[in-house]
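=== Structural record ===
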Amino acid sequence: MTSPSNQPIVTAARAPAVICVHSSASSARQWASLQDSLAGKYRVIAPDLLGYGTGREWRFERALSLDDEAREIEPLIAAEPDGVHLIGHSFGGAVAAHLALRNPGRVKSVTLYEPVLANLIQDDARAREAAVEFASVRIAVRRQVYSGRSEHAAQVFVDYWSGLGAWSALPDRRQQAIVRRMRKVDAEFDAIFYNTTSLSAYRRITVPVFTLVGGATRLPPRAIADLLGTALPDVRRQEIADAGHLGPLTHADEVNRRIRAFLDAQEARAPLARAA
């Protein structure tokens, strides 16, 4: 997490920097357990996205884009002369992938847990079923938000990703927090559906990329991971058998263990890469 002043928490002197981007309807606090897992060797920087926590307010004056989100995080990347490792979950994964494209030479690796790069499945005939499913969720959420029924929109959103009845099981305080964020969540759907980055563009991400998917996840994120696997030059993919889309929260120990192993492997090879 970040401090109230939005400055990174330093967990080790001169430690490699890791920037973590949270998912929709969440906040930087979702990375607290990962920060604990990486403590002592890495510096975890977890900013809040636009409209969340310490993030800048989003005023809905125009459609949101991934560029808007990326520009808010890029000063944190620029402040790290030795480069950064990027980690992102869901919408945060889409932002992290976009940051890697926008900042070649400054990113050392990318870890993506089910990045919702919706335009990739819209544009590929191989993922038609997944595209139809994801578009239907987006339409259902938008209808509720535009009808002034953000609570219904939140229920659609949560039950889609976490299973029928998940919304009803949430404490009232958590429900209300999500309801307040649904207009921004709707804007985030715009950002991923109207993203114009083609699948072939991801060939420009030449650093190691680690993609994680849940074995019990929905079809769209699985299809997106499949397509990214065909484009990324240096990619490795792992599946967490019984996890769903919220794996970084519901299966934090296992997700964190795998992320730590991947980061350690990249840092172990980094001196050799610099020497070459």
In short: The chain has twelve helices and six strands.
